[in-house]
Amino acid sequence: MNLFQSFPVAALSDISTNMWIVLGIIAAVVGAVAYGTAMPRNFPRNIPRVPLWKHFYIVLRGASKSDVYNRLVRGLIEKHGVVAFWNEGAWTILVTKPEYLVQIFKNSDRKLNKMGLAERIPWGSGAKLFGINIIDSDGEQYVTFRKLLKEGFCLPAPLDSFRQKGRDLAEKLLKNQTSTQGHNCGVLIGPPVWRWALSVWGEYFLDAQFDNNMDYRTFNIQQILTVQNKKFMGRLKGLFPFLDNLPFKWPVTAHSDRLLHEVQSRLLRLAEDRCRSPPPPDGENKIGFSLHRAREQNLMSEYHYQCNHKQLFIAGHENVETTLNSAMEELGANPHIQELLREEVTRNIPWDYSFKDLDQLPLLNAVIYEALRLYPPLGHMSNRIATEPYVLGEDIAVPKGMMLGWHAYGIQTDPHVWGETARKFDPFRWGKDSASVKQMLRQRQARGQYLPFGIYGRKCLGFNIAMQMLQSTLCELVRNIEWKHPEGYTFAYGKAALVMPDNITMQIVERRSEPEKLI
Questions:
Q1: Rounded to 5 degrees, what are φ and ψ at 182?
Q2: Are residues 403 and 114 in contact, defined by beta-carbon separation less than 8 angstroms?
Q3: How many other β-carbons are positioned within 10 Å of the β-carbon of residue 52?
Q4: CB 66 within 8 Å of CB 408
Q5: Could you give phi then psi for residue 318, rounded to 5 degrees?
Q6: d(CA 206, CA 137)
Q7: Mean pLDDT, residues 326-355
Q8: Other Cβ atoms within 10 Å of 75 Cβ, number
Q9: d(Cα 509, Cα 483) in Å, to the nearest integer?
Q10: Residue ranges per domain, the chain?
């Protein structure tokens, strides 16, 4: 008996019909994606384009932002200095050529405005978290925020407390190491470093301390975003933000929103509780008190009060957290540099050093600058919009309404700018003495080649205090402990928003020899 004769004709018909329906749905989806991702007609055609489908493929496969850059963008942008890049659901102009970066940051003709997440993706989680704040604002609003908050970034840092917190961090890392089983086991440095960052930030900006029992996995924002990006839908939403503007909420979005809401609630509650008591002597201009006073005097709305608190909290503690993590990663991978740094901070400055002493240590500062060069916390930002037709360089015609972005990780690891060892950790590239290190920093910033804290008129107000936090803590760490990677450790970039190593694991050893003390 013929098999096909025994198979019902109606069933074959149903299969054929269903197949065509499925193929039709697939074709419709592909067509919609192709239409929605088509490059605008007025997009400049004299710049190369990062392949869209390759971009989608490796992102959806779970590649980190740094891996996407290294695999797809680096070759094109190092040759041309600018590329067309799909970002946040639209084509943007991504720049690394130093001359173009200087033009963008100087913004001499005022044809570019800053545009934060609240304006770019107003329905997204980032907009709810950051809103309109001093970092994302522009024009008169930025001037107002800066006037109200600038003094809070210029207050003297509590050096004795910073020193103690650095020693506490060393002690915590050592304690974690001694509690592990196995001689060759290492410990994760991320959670203790995060708590250190919260502590120094809370003291300087709020005159308050966070609860030490907060869980790293549920209160660290980068960990929350990492969990989201491990989900396919989380990665897909990053490519197509409109998916969060549907009538329903995806489970991965609901989960991250709930955790982020708890983080911001704790922050605002801590700030409110502290402002119920008088500020400390000479501390009335701390950021927490300045924001509270501005709101009470109707100089700032409740919305802007909350947005600035949240943005400054996140930027303030995450920048020093990621930089210290990155510096420890590289010093663990380069023990000879770690030992040279240890010699510098034990032999060249007194035990009760000042910030002026730390500022004169060339290797200490070069290690921090080099960590920021290889791992700029904000590796990529597309937050400039052309408010009218704009010419980038000599012949790149940027239409009104087009977004422009810069890639700090890209320019700071470009061998055409930093030499053949651009992607290697080499703090000695900065100079042999304090004067040459500082001069190189100024030159690289002025030329648009070094961007971790911004340049020109929008340079980060917190740069100096961040440096003091990092200087004092690194000094205490190398004076009290040694660290190295355990056997089998593999480096990987984090998969959240910031450029930093992921799951850094170290073997921690106490410094047993008494260092030389200067009187």
A1: 105, 130
A2: no
A3: 18
A4: no
A5: -70, -35
A6: 22
A7: 97
A8: 13
A9: 6
A10: 13-510
Q: What is the pLDDT of residue 109?
A: 84
What one-letter code names the amino acid at 82? V
Q: Which residues pair with 405 in a beta bridge?
A: 94
Tokens 């730390």 appear where? 358
Q: Domain 13-510 in CATH: superfamily?
A: Cytochrome P450 (1.10.630.10)
3-state secondary structure string across 156-182:
CCCHHHHHHHHHHHHHHHHHHHHCCCC
CB atoms within 10 A of CB 90: 15
Instruction: Return the amino acid letter for 276.
Output: R
**Closest C-alpha among 469, 380, 398 to residue 112:** 398
Residue 254's Cβ-count burial label (10 Å; 0-12, 13-18, 19+) is exposed
Is 275 labelled a binding residue?
Answer: no
Q: Which of 166-180, 384-398, 452-466 has the lowest mean pLDDT?
A: 452-466
Residues 405-416: tens digit of each pLDDT: 999 999 999 999
Compute CA distances 22 → 8, 19, 32, 410, whole Å: 21, 5, 15, 42
The pLDDT value recorded for residue 25 is 64
**Structure-token pair, residue 12:** 């074959």
Name the maximum alpha-carbon separation found in the chain: 104
